[in-house]
Fold:
Amino acid sequence: MSWASRASELLGRALPGAQGLDEAMAIVEQLRQQLLGDGLLTVNRVEWPADAASAEVIDLQRVWSSRPEHYPVSGRKRKTLTDWTRQLLLRGEVFAGEGEDALAQAFDDNRLILSMGLRAVVNVPLLDSTGRCAATFNLLGTRETWTGQERVQIELLAAVARPWILAAPR
Structure:
């Protein structure tokens, strides 16, 4: 079966019939592997404090992971205000980090990321109906930089996964 036929099968038949977030994300992960090769895909739910407008710390709860042995679904992160949190979580803008220095600046766990052979990340904010970031779709790859086509593919994968992620029970 050709790549296009397989992608059509996954998106047109398998995904609409998925029974919940885990099954839907496993299908998205298959497509991600076909498009982008080795990497890591995680999804984090954003847990906003009661007074989100003046938040100094934002909690993230991992709800899906393609490598649960390294990044378990029960994992939590507390993020302080940084350039990364302001861009991704507060402004709802895609973040692309390329190379070891970018990963070190954005992530406390950059040593684990690098030990897995991962060198670049794209974090896509998934906005709720009010325009606030409700979750993040996080894709890391072994390349040092992303091509424009790869970034578009990642954002399309996030868009395909968004309904499943936002509808998942809390």
